Amino acid sequence: MLKVNQLTKTYDKIKAVDNISFHVKDGEIAVLLGPNGAGKSTTIKSIAGLLRYDGDIIINDMPNKSIEAKRIFGYVPEAPAVFDMLTIEEHIKYIASAYKMKNYKAKAKTLLEAFDLWDKKDKLGTSLSKGMKQKVSICCALLFEPRVILFDEPMIGLDPKAIKTLKDAFLKLRNSGCTILISTHIIDSVEEVWDRALIMKDGKIVLSRTREELANNNESLEDIFFHVTEGSL
Ligand SMILES: Nc1ncnc2c1ncn2[C@@H]1O[C@H](COP(=O)(O)OP(=O)(O)OP(=O)(O)O)[C@@H](O)[C@H]1O
């Protein structure tokens, strides 16, 4: 469960996120949509504990910056941060050690195979393409089976097979009861998987809808996105 209460983040004079509140339940996939500059990444980075902000962020009843919360949440940043001088396999070992995982090898092999990285596991971070770095970042976040996971623009740079593998991973995470928040401005990329859509504009959440609510009104995600962000609602 993820709870964001009255989150505000100001950079110098710019209010990037303006008093937003939302919840994402266990086993729910929420998508944070919005045009460029709406405040999506700032929201995700605040939840990940990387920024100072006003408001409260609670992960499974614990403050997001507590060690206990950090043990159970995963974060895939917008720009993958891999270590130049570690191989893919060493990244996996590093995460397994940080999260004190004992039996991680079979899970790691399954993940690396699914993302076509198994045969590249001895390659150094510095020699990986942008998409490969993104896949390493995703595998590291999935390895320790987080209870809450944040993805910031996860599809950027991925090939079609990796996009399909990632969508399958979203569904498996949901089935396991994980809380999932995905930020994107590419609506098509999440169309098949979302349960709750949060649309941001100018730092505010201007619309929150469940898939069921949209279906009952015969609306599509794309329709409401343009209505809300182009100001015709
Ligand atoms: N480090 C920073 N310093 C100053 N202003 C920032 C900083 N990061 C973001 N901003 C500003 O905060 C606002 C929200 O930016 P943010 O990156 O959160 O938006 P976004 O919705 O993720 O956009 P995009 O879809 O383009 O990635 C924008 O006006 C942006 O210029």
UniProtKB/TrEMBL annotation:
One of its GO terms (molecular function) is ATP hydrolysis activity. It comes from Vallitalea pronyensis. The keyword Aminoacyl-tRNA synthetase does not apply. This is ABC transporter ATP-binding protein. Transmembrane segments: none annotated. InterPro entries: AAA+_ATPase, ABC_transporter-like_ATP-bd, ABC_transporter-like_CS, ABC_Transporter_VariousFunc, P-loop_NTPase. It holds the Pfam family ABC_tran. Keywords: ATP-binding, Nucleotide-binding, Transport. PANTHER family: ABC TRANSPORTER ATP-BINDING PROTEIN ALBC-RELATED. Residues 2-227 form the ABC transporter domain. PROSITE patterns: ABC_TRANSPORTER_1, ABC_TRANSPORTER_2. Gene3D superfamilies: P-loop containing nucleotide triphosphate hydrolases.
